[in-house]
Specification:
mainly alpha; about 70% helix
């Protein structure tokens, strides 16, 4: 018969050894390794359990000095993957956006990436930190990160990523002309951050009140996203939601009647809050809340 047999495996039973007497005969490293993977299993098997994540993460930072750098790299990678998964799956409060940013800073500043075969930081990690700094509260950390870590990159990546980082910094500092100048100085946006450049550019034109330019960019942006072969259907949905809500944000911003403007912003806030994560969600929520508070203070 060609029928494939499937044998169910109770993975949880693998960790029952922790409850047996012989577990006490293991040395500290052996116990730590088994405990690591037990906590990791629980974290992924109970995907919406934030406490399971904290338990694994805290245990990692408590015990990682018992092991070599390769061990730290492996478990940092696990933490990154979990945070990315939660951002895509269920992160309405954007908690894992902040957590991913914190982990990335730790990973880079402690040079966890470095070994005999990898002298330079992989550009995607640098980029991930830049795009994670989306609120004014992260501005000084972003400035410090760029100044301290830019030379960790291969020389061929430094100019463009320094310009991208400075564009993000000046945007947070509300110096939109300087931010745009740095964006336009990027010679050849790598695939991994070409959409980051477009995202920031449309935000800059919005803040400069160049709404027609921003809407034109969103129109072209949506066409590009729909035809992007590299994106999954979930990726496309996240970008399409962003363009939908950005258009509503522009509409609310252009409303001249104060009462109607506030109503539109409050409606927009409630709608965005109900969505799972999408591109620019955190920035958009902060921007909407900022306007609501400003309107109410008048």
């Amino acid at each position: 018969s060609n029928k494939k047999e499937v044998f169910p495996v109770d993975t949880a039973s693998f960790f029952n050894i922790m409850k047996r007497k012989e577990f006490d005969t293991f040395d500290k490293r052996q116990k730590a390794i088994i405990t690591f993977y037990s906590k990791m299993f629980k974290m992924f098997s109970e995907l919406e359990n934030d406490e399971a994540y904290k338990d694994y993460m805290n245990y990692f930072f408590e015990k990682r000095n018992m092991f070599n750098m390769d061990f730290s790299k492996t478990h940092f990678s696990v933490l990154f993957n979990y945070c990315n998964m939660r951002q895509r799956y269920n992160d309405k409060k954007t908690l894992y956006h902040e957590e991913s940013l914190r982990l990335t800073y730790e990973y880079i500043s402690q040079k966890i990436y470095a070994d005999d075969n990898a002298k330079y930081l992989i550009p995607i990690y640098f980029r991930n930190f830049l795009i994670g700094c989306t609120t004014p509260g992260s501005k000084e950390l972003l400035r410090k990160f760029i100044d301290e870590q830019i030379n960790c990159l291969h020389p061929s990546h430094r100019k463009d990523l320094a310009n991208l980082g400075n564009a993000f910094y000046y945007f947070l500092n509300k110096e939109y002309g300087r931010a745009l100048k740095h964006l336009l100085a990027i010679d050849n946006p790598q695939y991994m951050y070409k959409y980051d450049v477009r995202n920031l550019e449309v935000k800059i034109y919005f803040e400069m009140k160049k709404y027609d330019t921003a809407e034109g960019m969103l129109h072209n942006y949506l066409k590009n996203v729909k035809s992007e072969t590299f994106f999954t259907s979930l990726d496309k949905k996240k970008y399409m939601l962003m363009t939908e809500y950005f258009r509503k944000l522009i509409k609310a911003e252009k409303e001249e009647n104060t009462k109607k403007r506030l109503t539109e912003y409050e409606y927009l806030r409630d709608k965005i809050n109900k969505e799972d994560g999408f591109i620019m969600k955190k920035w958009m929520l902060n921007r909407v809340e900022e306007t609501i508070n400003s309107e109410k203070a008048k």
